[in-house]
Amino acid sequence: MAGVKIFDTTLRDGEQSPGVTLIPEEKLAIAKQLAKMKVNVIEAGFPISSDGDFNAVKMVAENVKGVEVAALARCRKSDIDRAWEAVQHAENPRIHVFIASSPIHLEYKLQMSEDEVLNNAVEAVKYAAQYTDNIEFSAEDASRTGTDFLARLFKAVIDVGAKVINIPDTVGYAVPSEFGQLIKDVKEKTPNIDQAEISVHCHNDLGLAVANSLAAIENGASQVEVSVNGIGERAGNAALEEIVMALYTRQDYYNLDITQDTTQIARLSKLVANSTGITLQANKAIVGANAFAHEAGIHQDGVIKERTTYEIMDAKTIGLDHNKLVLGKHSGRHALKDFLEKYDYELDQESFESFFKRFKDLADKKKNVSNADIIALLDNELYDY
Ligand code: KIV
Ligand code: ZN
């Protein structure tokens, strides 16, 4: 069965989240957990950007095994030298070079023509090839670039040794069917595409990063770039946990081999949230506090009878002990009975009904009914305080 490579950029694009700085030791701890989860590639940083980042990439490259380690560089010799210096001792080092390709970036940011960009990209890949044959090339803002130029650019860099061509939706502008079609068009128009892997890198400005990445996979992308908890520039990147769990949960649809250890997801997510200070919204898919919680009575009843009535994933699959039945104003008798059983309380029918009424009265007034609240109510019922 074919698979998709998971390229994690939490330590590079993820660290570009406004206000986030990770010290090398924090990056190392995250990288070790990423390796434990068996991602395929870790992009550890952008070594030319600071001495701290250089040291972090070096530390990850030298200490994290069983995974490719990538370092980012612009299409400049000094960037490439610095990237290689940092990453060279990895088991399998990768140099990732990028240059913008869209008319808007060429005109306003680079002030370069398409031919100048192409020559620059070719020279950079040739230069990187003196160090390694594991070279990734990214056409920044690819989703706002015409496919004729993209194909010309990709053909040229593949000819001089790029092994992965990355198609970023840098500003999160694409929509899924369009992005899928872009991948298809690039494949059709780039004559030597069989000599390279197609990667995608989607940003979440319209909340579509995961959907776009999945559309790209359906159309031939075999590497997907992600970050833990979806952190990154502006609205962030495609979330690692959402992509992996979508591919895992819907293997029936994607038919892809998942080699990652999904049971490491919860730990990884917590580690990244704690190190970066970027907390998660409660309803965040997969790793939010409510992702495996049920409050409505009908749902709780269903889940108690058979988990799969209202759960498409088992909490254990991402490394949690169990799901949660939250007791609140929407909860029903089944959830309360379940609670009594867990805490070893026995109530006759009459006491139970009276306790249930007291519980509902309290839940109507209080947003969060804690276990301690319920135990107080029970003691009240049993001992008539
Ligand atoms: O979003 C982007 O285009 C990037 C590139 C450097 C790959 O992060
Ligand atoms: Zn990016």
UniProtKB/TrEMBL annotation:
Its EC number is 2.3.3.13. It catalyses: 3-methyl-2-oxobutanoate + acetyl-CoA + H2O = (2S)-2-isopropylmalate + CoA + H(+). Residues 4-264 form the Pyruvate carboxyltransferase domain. GO terms for cellular component: cytoplasm. This is 2-isopropylmalate synthase. Belongs to the alpha-IPM synthase/homocitrate synthase family. LeuA type 1 subfamily. The keyword Transferase applies. Its cofactor is Mn(2+). Transmembrane segments: none annotated. It is an enzyme of class 2 (transferase). GO terms for molecular function: 2-isopropylmalate synthase activity; acetyl-CoA C-acetyltransferase activity; manganese ion binding. Catalyzes the condensation of the acetyl group of acetyl-CoA with 3-methyl-2-oxobutanoate (2-ketoisovalerate) to form 3-carboxy-3-hydroxy-4-methylpentanoate (2-isopropylmalate). GO terms for biological process: L-leucine biosynthetic process. Pathway: Amino-acid biosynthesis; L-leucine biosynthesis; L-leucine from 3-methyl-2-oxobutanoate: step 1/4. Keywords: Amino-acid biosynthesis, Branched-chain amino acid biosynthesis, Cytoplasm, Leucine biosynthesis, Manganese, Metal-binding, Transferase. Mn(2+) binds at residues 13, 201, 203, 237. Homodimer.
